[in-house]
Amino acid sequence: MSNTNQGPVTVLGLGMMGAALADAFVRNGNRTTVWNRSAGKADALVAKGAVAAGDVREAVDASPVIVVCVSTYDVMNDLFGPLSDALRGKVVVNLTSGTPDEARSAAAWAADHGVQYLDGAIMAVPQMIGLPEALIFYGGAQEVFAGQEELLKLLGGNSVYLGTDAGVPMIYDLALLTMLWSSLAGYFHAQALVSTVGVSAAEFLPFANTWIEHVITPAIPESAEEIDSASFETEISSLNVNKAAISHLVKTSNQLGINSDMSVAIQALIEKRVAAGHGTHALSSLVEAFKK
Ligand SMILES: NC(=O)c1ccc[n+]([C@@H]2O[C@H](COP(=O)([O-])OP(=O)(O)OC[C@H]3O[C@@H](n4cnc5c(N)ncnc54)[C@H](OP(=O)(O)O)[C@@H]3O)[C@@H](O)[C@H]2O)c1
User: Fold this and answer.
1) Cα–chain-centroid distance for residue 37?
2) 120 lines ligand 1 (CB under 6 A)
3) How many A from CA of 13 to the centre of ligand 1?
4) CATH 1.10.1040.10 domain extents, the chain
5) What's the whole-model pTM score?
6) Edge-first strand listing for the sheet containing 135-140
7) Is CATH 1.10.1040.10 correct for 196-290?
């Protein structure tokens, strides 16, 4: 299988992300066929040299590699259901977000119909597509990834193959998203707290930044060592100490009329571990509270 980034490619779905993907191929000079349910979204790409297909079948027929980026797996499944004959022997690279099970079902459908399938998770915003630092995870047959690696690097310079299980990229996707949402939600909670004493986000920013740099960032690799060795004893900050501190956060948030839902959820995890006899453990011991 040739590994080139010059071949013809089709992009199905020209939303915010799909349009960025197609644009990266057009900029590289690939013959890029595009299709979108709402046809007008192809216009800007066609002006740059893309070819608009009249329907999904025409788009699939145009290229050996089909990149899909639509809102859900259900949408992709509905598009592909009637086209299994046209897809046979083609490479499908699905960059739609969903769950690991949806990815595995799509891979099983593809295998049943002779389609070479890669499932991908884009850990970047559209503006980052094509940059060296754009991270995209892939799962599926190793030889299919190897055959398309150069082409896929046009979308994300940091394209990482995670193995044959097509569900794994979605696990990584959700793992990084839960970090994003919970860490930023903690920051927003912090800003709401300081706002009660008239402090603006800009005024608080230097303290948020120094806290992340000198306390949170170093805790990530330290915690990784503790988790992998299942060795949670600490000389720094125990769950017992954090249990007391988070009760102050919940109480104060409630008194100030600030939403405490997230703090209450974290408090419950800490209390569960302390009740199980792990009060002397580091915070990283909470990983065990997440496991059922
Ligand atoms: N945007 C990001 O930063 C980002 C980052 C990582 C991953 N993703 C993932 O990429 C995927 C697309 O995201 P997006 O930001 O491009 O979303 P979007 O702008 O809302 O685009 C959604 C796309 O899905 C199409 N679509 C929806 N329902 C359809 C249907 N029933 N039949 C045919 N096409 C249908 C839309 O077509 P119409 O134009 O006709 O509505 C459009 O092309 C999502 O799974 C998202 O989670 C996005």
Assistant:
1) 24
2) no
3) 6
4) 196-290
5) 0.94
6) 51-52, 32-35, 9-12, 65-68, 91-94, 116-123, 135-140, 158-161
7) yes
